[in-house]
Write a structure and sequence with these properties.
- The protein has about 425 residues and is α/β, with parallel strands linked by helices.
- It contains 9 helices and 9 strands.
- The chain has a 9-stranded mixed β-sheet with strand order 1-2-3-5-4-6-7-8-9, sandwiched between helices.
- The radius of gyration is 20 Å and the shape is globular.
- The two termini are about 35 Å apart.
Length: about 425
């Protein structure tokens, strides 16, 4: 859920706006004031997604309005430079597409030095330029991506029985990281090697950008770089299937903003058997949420989804709660806390702590999502566990808790 908000939150004077402006801005948006008529989704997302293997899901019904009165988040004063949706630490890499503002909005193109390569390419020309073995079963794959205009990495964990020369394929879990983190997060911060490692499943952990927006950026309506959704769906998946023996039976998991990515990708592209979100940003158009998200991320601002009012259709197209009806036939697991100190937190953590605020927002969005799913008749396994903050101590538990259902859905047994 860190999304673009994952970036650096700067809301000191914005906290007041988060309370006063939502009623005006979101009210206008919901009333349709200033909203262009006849605009569909985001620019650049209208093309059909190619099939990289047998279809795994039936066609989905159209989206439906999730609720007449979604809960609005309540936000205390947020200290300057705090980061409620941060999931890691450090700083973005010099080549991070989110931080490279000079490339934003440019037409997708292969980055310099991509070369011809020895690997099969993705349909748009994306290609693997390097593979480095970092552990006995873990590889770091460098991908030259037209969608990002840069070379970025994807970490791959293969099953014990995997061989590069085989013709066999394996079920795959695509794992999306949170904001202020990178493609190494799942092996660095989580217990995924211990949980999934014993099974005959592949895990693909692609770069998702420092802001973790999991969408093709709006960029004032012109689209263009960075196109994260295109990278993850049209480039990473075919490259894994054409070069690493990844199968067409897939699951998507993610935490924080990566949780939003997992659920919205499952809604927008019917190619996943199961989708799991841990503390995901699953209702970005909830009353008050757009102004909170855009305020927290000064660097990206409205570049990711556009202005919450004039680009309302684009925001809705990427809201997991608004599009929950499209999950019929897909296994779904969602979990989150409510921001109060839980069993893995210091009991005297102050209300303005970033981890408390982040999970408070996530908790509200997840409650809205679960309520909308129930109304839409979409079966969802939810674990809204109450006290708990926005950190890996909870997500490790949730990964282990959700894994049996994920493994069953994709046919991953112990190897």
């Amino acid at each position: 859920m860190k999304k673009r908000t994952d970036r650096k939150i700067a809301i000191a004077g914005t906290a007041a706006a988060a309370v006063l402006l939502p009623a005006v801005m979101v009210g206008l948006a919901q009333a349709g004031v200033g909203v262009p008529k006849g605009r569909s989704e985001a620019s650049g997302n209208g093309k059909p997604i190619p099939s990289f293997g047998p279809a795994t899901q039936p066609s989905a019904p159209g989206s439906a309005s999730p609720t007449t009165s979604p809960k609005a988040p309540k936000l205390p004063n947020v200290p300057l430079n705090s980061n409620p949706f941060g999931t890691g630490g450090g700083s973005p890499s010099p080549t991070d597409p989110d931080s490279n503002t000079g490339s934003h909005g440019k037409k997708p193109h292969l980055p310099p030095g991509a070369g011809s390569g020895k690997y099969a390419k993705a349909p748009d020309g994306a290609t693997i330029t390097g593979v480095k073995k970092v552990a006995s079963r873990i590889f770091d794959v460098t991908i030259a991506s037209p969608a990002l205009g840069a070379q970025v990495k994807t970490r791959v964990m293969v099953p014990k029985s995997w061989k590069s020369s085989t013709t066999k394929t394996w079920p795959v879990v695509y794992a999306y990281h949170g904001g202020n983190n990178n493609y190494t997060s799942w092996t660095k911060d989580s217990n995924i090697e211990q949980v999934v490692g014993p099974y005959n499943a592949m895990v693909v952990m692609p770069e998702g950008g420092w802001n973790g927006s999991y969408t093709n950026w709006y960029n004032g309506g012109k689209g263009g770089i960075p196109e994260w959704e295109t990278f993850h769906i049209r480039e990473v998946i075919p490259l894994m299937e054409r070069n690493f023996h990844a199968g067409s039976v897939r699951a998507a998991i993610g935490l924080s903003s990566g949780g939003q990515g997992a659920i919205t990708y499952a809604e927008r592209h019917r190619i996943f058997k199961y989708a799991a979100s841990y503390s995901g940003a699953l209702n970005i158009t909830a009353p008050g949420m757009p102004i909170i998200l855009t305020s927290m991320n000064r660097e990206a601002g409205t570049a990711i989804w556009g202005d919450p009012i004039s680009a309302r259709a684009n925001w809705q197209a990427h809201d997991a709660t608004v599009n929950v009806a499209k999950l019929k036939g897909v296994g779904v697991y969602v979990s989150s806390g409510n921001g109060q100190p839980g069993p893995h937190d210091k009991p005297d953590t102050p209300p303005h702590d970033a981890g408390r605020i982040g999970e408070q927002l996530a908790g509200t969005m997840n409650e809205n999502f679960v309520a909308a799913a129930k109304r839409a008749g979409v079966p969802v396994t939810s674990h809204l566990y109450g006290p708990g903050m926005h950190n890996w101590k909870y997500w490790r538990v949730e990964l282990q808790r959700s894994w049996p259902a994920i493994a069953k859905a994709i046919g991953a047994g112990r190897s």
